[in-house]
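stuck on this:

***
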Amino acid sequence: MAIAHALVLPLRDHASLRRRVSALAENRPAVYRMLDPTGRVIYVGKAKQLRTRILSYFRARPPHKAARILQAADDIQWAYVPSEFSALLRELREIKRHRPLYNSRMKRRRNVGFIKISGGPAPKIYVGSTPGSREVSHYGPFVHVGRLRESVKILNDVLGLRDCALDVSIAFAEQRDLFEPERRAACLRHELGTCLGPCAGFVTEQDYHGRLAIATTFLEGRGIDPLNQVIETMARASDAQHFEIATRWRERFDTLTWLLGSCATAHATLESLSFVYTDPGAYGDDRAYVVRRGTVRASAPAPRSPIELEAFRALVAEHADVAPEPGPIPSDAIDETLLVMSWFRKHPRALRRTVPLGDWLDQHTA
């Protein structure tokens, strides 16, 4: 069981704080929190060796980030956890809960990208590296962000979907006043034939959302209409002996084929991260995790007795029979999914301690 410690001290009494950490903190996995004089959490961190990690803050000197955090801190709290993986998971969830100031300031840049579909009357498909609001759908993650941007641009061009700023006003054809002078599109893409022009009343809401549905179906691997459109255009150009144009359309075909394959790979990777993971604890306190599509849905001490096994079996069964989900990743699950992916990429031997959900149930059927 995790044990939380709070060190309540006078304002900026770092000498006493250091002595208490030296006396009380143990060198074992833990998650710690730095608090300001008002009790607000300003930083959350994790450590494989708690005592060593916290004492390192007292040796740091400006402008090192550890020194800046300690200067703003007045108290420290910590909770022991079974392992490094447990620490990573709890650290992430505490950061999401408290949104500490210094964690936000020092947030690392991501090296992966997501295909995003915005909300709003005329949703936009674009590429980003950070989770958006709950209104935004996310597909991925993808590694080759540059090529991803290029492929999404071509997908938008083929289907005529907008790529303008999210705050551009939208006016569908059925919303225009009969006596209103004709509006101009906000960019040249409409004149070039690569945008339906939802900003200027050149398309109905139904038609625009129909094109968006085609794109969504493509990203989820349930249809290839954009590829068919490119093939038809390429064939017409070739038949008319416009070989240079046909070559350009062939390049678009190759790019969209790459995008389709990358989406399928991303989906398969997420589905493969569905298993029971037994993580060894530093003090024999092993813990079992039910992982589904890269997120931890449940966890408990690794079952040893028949009663514990039956209780954990119920947790596994709840998630084992869920059908594959071709849709987007929930926005609030992205950080945890990336954490789980990173853990097993850096610790491939940990995969030996995983069992697919269905197989685990078969192995533990009475």
